[in-house]
Amino acid sequence: MGFPKESFRVCESRHCPLFRYGDTFTVSGIALAMESGGDHSFINTTVVHSPPNREQCKILYGDLNKIIIEYERADHIPDCLISCSGCTGSLRLEHFQGLRAEAENMDDEAVRIGSLLHRLGNFPFFRNIDQKNLNSVIKHFQLAEVEKDQIIIRKGDPGANFYIVASGRVEILNDAGIPISTLEKGDVFGEMSLICNENAGATVQARERGEVLYIEHKQFKNILQKHPALQQYFTRLLAKRLTNANRMRSDDYTSGMIGRLEEIPAEALFQTLNMNAKTGILTITQLQQGTARFSLRHGALIKASYGGAKGEEAFYAVLREKNGRFKFTPGLPPEDFDVPEIGYFMKLLMEGMQRIDEHVPVN
Known about the structure:
By secondary structure, the protein is an alpha+beta fold. It folds into 3 domains: 5-107, no CATH class; 140-226, Jelly Rolls; 231-357, no CATH class. The protein has helices at residues 58-71, 99-104, 108-120, 131-138, 191-195, 217-226, 228-247, 250-253, 266-275, 311-319, 345-357; strands at residues 5-14, 24-28, 31-36, 39-44, 47-49, 80-83, 90-95, 142-146, 151-153, 161-167, 170-173, 179-183, 188-189, 203-206, 210-216, 258-260, 280-287, 290-297, 300-306, 309-310, 325-330. The strands form 5 sheets. The protein has a 6-stranded antiparallel sheet with strand order 16-21-17-18-19-20. Strands 5-2-1-7-6 form a 5-stranded antiparallel sheet. A hairpin with a 2-residue loop joins β19 and β20 (309-310).
């Protein structure tokens, strides 16, 4: 007959260096004070089993040991919450009837998810997801090894996956095969072609042997819809990348942002300007119907013209364009500061993207 066993599961983890949400500990043993012939003795047989592939934490083990001492047997522990008493982070564990059976029935997939959570839970992408939803998100990801110089994404190929660098480094290559950017652990890539339904705009190659975490296009879109915080994360990421790209164009930087729609799709460009509350004039040339001109005030559209269309119809038409050269010039003439907005920006953007998906013709 073995010692009684019970399980504790991490229900909250904030900056803990060792354990993550969902990690489960098994605690067994008894702790009894005994008296015999005037002699007093204390027996403690507590054993703490950590989650697989985790380092040891004597502070937490001590906290779990105190629970056994308090209730004398593991199977006498009532439903409760306990907090880890030390270290630099914050950790809380829950115990309730039936948790042990649930833990014992964990299959290989659950172990895989737990391992990924431990390794990747602190990556910027996952920090935008509530801890209670992390399991349901990360289960859609797969971990793959990449070899040095392996092509992960090739420019012009249809977007298939969203990637996160799990270990090692990858490089973004220009058309000449020269690295123009290096991504490291926690950085993401491949999202633009999925968000915009475009072919890959650049080749991505492994600089050294490492690992990438990836998720397929359909699941990526589903996660994006369910977690609005991720939409804001990618908007900030787009703004940062656009800013960095323009810093490289030092000759033209003083006149505002410049670029091509092949590099930054129209919807991403407008969203970046809106997110950063830009005020100025956006001019897009080399379009199918000539030149488009947009005026923005604190990120909101106030004027739009393209190919004979005005207002929102001009905006919808430009969202369909795939090629062209843009330039954003800060500042507006005084009379434009009182012009009313064309409409709520996010509503306009969603309407425009829906029209594209449904192939609604431009008026």
